[in-house]
Amino acid sequence: MTTDKNTEHDGVTRRNFLNVATGAVAAVGGVSAVWPLIHQMNPSADVLALSSIEVDLTSIPLGQTIKVLFRGKPIFIRHRTPEEIARAKGDDTAALPDPAADDSRVQKPEWLVMVGTCTHLGCVPLDQRGEFGGWFCPCHGSHYDISGRIRKGPAPRNLDVPVYAFVTDTTIKIG
Amino acid sequence: MSSSSYEPQNKVAKWVEDRLPVLGLLHGTVGAGYQAPRNLNYWWNFGSLAGFMLVVQIVTGIILVMHYTPHVDMAFRSVEHIMRDVNYGHILRYIHANGASMFFIVVYIHILRGMYFGSYKAPREVLWFLGLVIYLLMMATGFMGYVLPWGQMSFWGASVITNLFGAFDFYEGMGDSILQLLWGGYSVDNPTLQRFFSLHYLMPFVIVGVVILHIWALHIPGSNNPLGIDAKGPADKIPFHPYYSAKDAFGLAFFILFFAAFVFFMPNILGHPDNYIEANPMVTPPHIVPEWYYLPFYTILKAIPHKLLGVIAMFASILILFVLPWLDGSKVRSAKFRPMTAFFFWLFLVNGIFLGYLGTKLPSDIVFHVGEMGVDALTLGQIGTVFYFAYFVVIVPLVSRTEKTKPVPTSIAEAVLGSKKKG
Predict the structure, then answer these.
(1) Are B243 and B229 part of one and the same domain?
(2) Which pLDDT tens digit goes with each residue over B359-383?
(3) What is the DSSP string of B87-128?
(4) Which residues pair with B285 in a beta bridge?
(5) What is the ipTM score, two decimals?
């Protein structure tokens, strides 16, 4: 190989530098060009805009659960009885795969608000079934307690609690 | 794919051949120019049957798209429109829906034939890889196709399968980011349906491309055969056309009878009635079952009561086939001369069917009783899963390296003609 003694330093030539610089610019350009092709798959602006709903709680009787649709998934809102609240708090010390105190999962103990899809593979668990008197997912057999905590089965996490806030004493805004 | 032996019969063919040697390519691939072993049995029909099914699916699929609407508000109704209003629409849809099952039947037999007769072994490893790539593409295509009618099973199958990718949750929010990217939203919804439709239309053509590579790779060493020995001289071989083109056509006639029996007399037997209920994100059907061709892998998923490990095991159960050429250390290809290998092969097959059967069960279902104690589907699924993996990582490596094989004939001609003399 012929080398230009004016440009060579420790075996690195001007040409090496140009090759690396050209390659680097091409790589950055290539990634920039591919990114829109991938990012178009993420939620679009109109999907993101559907960010919140308000729910009136007065129509939910004690000991009943309603389902509302939020971002394509059901949200469980359960009006818990004092007995259920006591049971949920009592289980705070039980063996929990995903430990969480009942207090940390509710804003007001009588209102349990959760995303109603199993954290295993996304089925909708059945209300008031299973070995722990909470929810039971029929797809692969996950049992949740009355606080929506995973107790048994393949699901890795407790049922998720969505972002919500009490607008008034009897109305919540989800999202 | 040599075209050297091809002599164009007329001036037009010669004119074309001189400019683009495509006729010679066909001649050398599926014509008289391809010299195949003389002893291929009917298990060798399933490659061409798979090719036939690919064409059927593409043709019927293109037609169905002329009447289908990929939108959550209209997809279910447009499928009913195809079933009730479009001329011959119900038959075309039944051909396409059952065609997917037929495609998997012939491909499963094709793969198992390759396993039994050692077709994956040197020098056909790349041929085997390309076949597995086709199989993986088929699984993805079949899954996305099942989502398009937007019934309850479509929707919940899509939810469960996409949620598998949420198992890759290695840092806070990673699983959710992957899922939102797959769904185009916060759940399976219209963006999901539309991208599945786009990809379901694309993938068959990708499969066509890989099939061409598969056939190319086949023609480098040539077809394997039931004896698993190399075809050497001209005495071992016969031209593909007319011998195997005729044999393939004969087999195809029987296969079409089988296929037609499903299409005309039991078109819904392989489907699930819940898919005639429109998708409803608020209600999960009491029992979600995938299509039959995924069931063994679904059982493996369910057998492991841990989300990430279950998903990994399920993917591993298919990907492990890629290393089969090296797990098998035998110098003899065909299980005909490997009695232990043949025994475990059939055990593997039975276990696979058993895993498929368990896939239709809930984990807590009692399958049978031993005295007073019931044995549930979860336990049996775990036993079957252990055997499935043990077959690949323990049985095949050990048996193939230690087994005393039966004497292998020195040539195909000798084996074929010799046995004829005895008879």
Answers:
(1) yes
(2) 998 877 888 888 888 888 989 999 9
(3) TTHHHHHHHHHHHHHHHHHHHHHHHHHHHHTTTTSTT-HHHH
(4) none
(5) 0.79
> Residues B16, B115: one domain?
no
- Closest-CA residue of chain B to A127: B283
Q: Which residue segment(s) compose the domain that B394 sits in?
A: 31-422
Question: And the tokens for B274?
Answer: 């819940």
Q: Is B156 exposed, middle or buried (0-12, 13-18, 19+ CB in 10 A)?
A: buried
Which strands form A150-152's sheet, in the order they lie side by side? A126-129, A133-137, A142-145, A150-152
On the 0-12 / 13-18 / 19+ scale of CB atoms within 10 A, B48 is buried
Q: Which residue of A has its CA nearest to B181?
A: A42
Nearest beta carbon to residue B281 from set A43, A72, A156:
A72
Let me know whether B141 and B185 are in one domain: yes
Q: Do residues B5 and B113 both lie within one domain?
A: no
C-beta of residue B129 within 8 angstroms of C-beta of residue B256: no
Rounded Cα distance between B158 and B161, Å, is 5
Place of tokens 């699924």: B381
- Closest residue to B181, CB basis, from A41, A72, A140: A41
Model confidence, pTM: 0.90
Please count the structural domains in chain B. Answer: 2
* Interior angle at CA B258, CA B266 and CA B147, nearest 5: 55
The answer to whether A142 and A122 have CB atoms below 8 angstroms apart is: no
Q: Are residues B213 and B251 in the same domain?
A: yes
Neighbours of B24 (CB within 10 A): 22
By the 10 Å C-beta count (0-12 exposed, 13-18 middle, 19+ buried), B11 is classed as exposed
Token output for B377: 């589907």
The predicted-structure confidence for A46-80, as pLDDT tens digits, reads as follows: 888 877 889 999 999 999 999 999 988 999 999 99
Same domain for B328 and B380, yes or no, is yes
Residues B143 and B4 both lie in one domain: no
Selection from B384, B407, B418 nearest residue B313 by Cα: B384
* Residues of chain B neighbouring A97 (CB-CB closer than 8 A): none
